Amino acid sequence: MSYPIRLALAVVAAVASVAGGSAPAPVPGVYDQQPSTAALPHAGVEELAVDLVDLDGAATARTAKLSAQADQISKAAADLEAAKLAQAAAAAKAAAAAKTAAVSKAAVPAVTPGSARDIARQMMLSAYGWGDDQFACFDKIITQESGWNVSATNRSSGAYGIPQALPGNKMATAGADWQTNPATQIKWALGYVQGRYATPCGAWAFKSAHGWY
Question: What are the residue ranges in the chain where pLDDT is below 70?
């Protein structure tokens, strides 16, 4: 308690004594006491700091290790998923190729060596680069038009030969033997198809829609 307060209390007590009253019990002195802080030895503080530093370093190392492991797991999972997708795509591509090959093989008619069909097939490949898919379309056209008969004649229209050219003598532009030579008739037919429809399959699509080409 501060000195002015103690002095004031003493004066009050004296006045009360003179007046014949009883003085209040003396108030015990109150002193501000602060517990003294024990100073840590210098060596102890340094050891504590070292321990904290080591602890932080170990935690950082463990965090980095766990992060690296997580990255490795994520990369492995991504690689596995990519491998699965690539395998599925390859399998789908192989299945589609096999299906296409099977359909193409079934669509291409049997060709007897030296026949009009064989001549057409060889000529299409060598002169135009058309494969069996285009040959299959051309075969459908000619089979419906003449059945590959070099002397087939339409009695009502006068169309003639393998391609049923109208009139038949238009095929003379391909050779003088247009009436009897299947190669000459096929040569003319392929040139006609290429000039008018670009490909035999284009001609077949038109014929399927209109009944003629």
Answer: 1-56, 95-108
